[in-house]
Amino acid sequence: MSDIGIVSYGAYIPRYRIKAEEIASVWGKDGESISKGLGIYEKSVPSIDQDTATISVEAARGALNRCSIHPKDIGAIYVGSESHPYAVKPTGTIVGEAIGATPELMVADYEFACKAGTAAMQTCFAFVKSNMIKYGLAIGADTSQAAPGDALEFSASAGGGAFIIGKDNVIAIINKTCSYTTDTPDFWRRAERKYPAHGGRFTGGPAYFKHITNCSFNLMKKVNTKPEDYDYAIFHQPNGKFPVSIARKLGFSYDQIKQSLMVPYIGNTYSGATMIGLSSVLDIAKSGDRIFLTSYGSGAGSDSFDMTITDDIIKLHRGNAPLVEQMVNDKKYIDYGTYAKLTDLLYWE
Amino acid sequence: MGCGGVARFWREIPQRYNLIGNICGSCNKTFFPPKEACPYCRRKSMGKMQDIKFSGKGEIITYTIIHSASENFQKQVPYIMAIIKLNEGPKITAQIVDCDIENIKIGMKVDSTFRKIQEDGYTGAIYYGYKFRPCNVLVTNNEKEKCETK
Ligand SMILES: [Zn+2]
């Protein structure tokens, strides 16, 4: 059986940033100690004309620019997000039209807090494996919202990643993937509410740590690997502290995760977080590198992936789309007033 | 935009999302938005107009800064509107984003980006389409070369 995996990838991070200090000063808090506590110094902010659909399109176009596949050969698009622009009308329809993949393809939107993008990757992987499609496009993107003054305001940011999954010219073979899911109410947003609610300290131990730990160990058991077998590891990054701490608990070193650790300078991009982290690793990965990834979505669940970079990575035109590092560094700072206007905090009907 | 607006927008999706214009098979002139017939060749162009997808790369010919806008665009002022000459020939009017107003200049190389153009309040449809951004902003050296060689 031929290998199935990532054929191409693209990421997108909006250009605006707001510093944690700036947010803290509005609410009479100490920005420096908050930054230190969260491990987040600034976060990305979508422009007024950007949403999950535009971010998804930019990331998907980046993936297509890097390879030579025809968009009509994409047989499925799954977009994972918790901030789809419409409650009813799939983001994937807009993406499909904007990349020229319509009309003969399968499309649906996914929602699983911050892991909807990796769930989309698993679906595309299965469709390719069963020969139902030639290529699938899996996207994870968000423009996450936080209530003004809420602790989440320091982290909730915007960005996304797109992966084309197939079996020709694979740059990263997906050796194995598995999931771990329970009913854990650590974070939620009720239907028709603008802002999410969360279980405070409950978001750590029984949620993020338990699911990532079990899912990661299960996968390593299935493929018979140890943390030291991997060149890179990517974990969901709701803040700067959790991924460092989970890596240590699982036996991964800081060196293995640092290439994917984007949260200190862009914040938590939710469904985009592990996708952007993986994109950053693929920006520099070499043939033979082994990659470990575990996402986390509140509610709650984790998806783990074991991947190996192939010789074909050198044939991918990585320079045809912006690298994650370039997007992280291309930024314009805004003040809280501008932030409030761009993110519609002042809305009225 | 009411329902008529939605229908018109829907018909224009190929142009707005993917810069689909057309080319006259008789004189090779390109058009955006697409034309029914070539204004130069007229009857000779009948049946010879072919769709073409423009690269989205071009150059700013002229621009203006909008300081006072209609209700839908108030939150974006001041913003830049420009006439862009696409590498393939046609001229197109569009908003320039990801560019500070003090940095905009005639001759600047730009490429297209996908943005929200307008929305019908909090309950209506959202309209997406092209805007343009400076070529050097989010592309690597490879891509920058491609922008500049044409
Ligand atoms: Zn003509």
Structure, described:
The complex is a heterodimer of chains A (349) and B (150). Chain A is α/β, with parallel strands linked by helices and 349 residues long. Helix content of chain A is 32%, strand content 24%. Chain A has 12 helices and 14 strands. Chain A has helices spanning 20-26, 31-38, 52-66, 91-98, 116-129, 204-223, 242-250, 254-257, 263-266, 273-282, 324-329, 336-342, and strands spanning 5-12, 16-19, 42-45, 74-80, 106-110, 135-143, 158-166, 172-184, 187-188, 197-198, 232-235, 290-294, 299-309, 332-333. In chain A, strands 5-4-6-7-1-8-13-12-11 form a 9-stranded mixed β-sheet, sandwiched between helices. Chain B has 2 domains: 3-19 and 55-149, OB fold (Dihydrolipoamide Acetyltransferase, E2P) (Beta Barrel), CATH 2.40.50.840; 20-53, no CATH class. Chain B has a 5-stranded antiparallel β-sheet. By secondary structure, chain B is an alpha+beta fold. Zinc ion binds at residues 24, 26-27, 29, 38, 40-41, 45 of chain B.
What oligomerization state is this entry in? heterodimer
Helix content of chain B: 10-25%
Number of domains of chain B: 2
**Order of the strands making up the biggest sheet of chain A:** 5-4-6-7-1-8-13-12-11
The helix content of chain A is 25-40%
Small molecules bound in the structure, each named once: zinc ion
Low-confidence stretches of chain A: none
Order of helices and strands of chain B: HHEEEEEEEEH
Computed CA radius of gyration of chain B, to the nearest angstrom: 17 Å
Q: Quick check: average pLDDT of chain B?
A: 89
Distance between the termini of chain B: 38 Å
Structural class of chain A: alpha/beta
Overall pLDDT confidence of chain A: 95
- What amount of the residues of chain B lies in strands? 35-45%
The shape of chain A is globular
Short description, anyone?
Chain A has helices at residues 20-26, 31-38, 52-66, 91-98, 116-129, 204-223, 242-250, 254-257, 263-266, 273-282, 324-329, 336-342, and strands at residues 5-12, 16-19, 42-45, 74-80, 106-110, 135-143, 158-166, 172-184, 187-188, 197-198, 232-235, 290-294, 299-309, 332-333. By secondary structure, chain A is α/β, with parallel strands linked by helices. Chain A folds into two domains: 5-171 and 326-342, Peroxisomal Thiolase, Chain A, domain 1 (3-Layer(aba) Sandwich), CATH 3.40.47.10; 173-312, Thiolase/Chalcone synthase (Peroxisomal Thiolase, Chain A, domain 1, 3-Layer(aba) Sandwich).
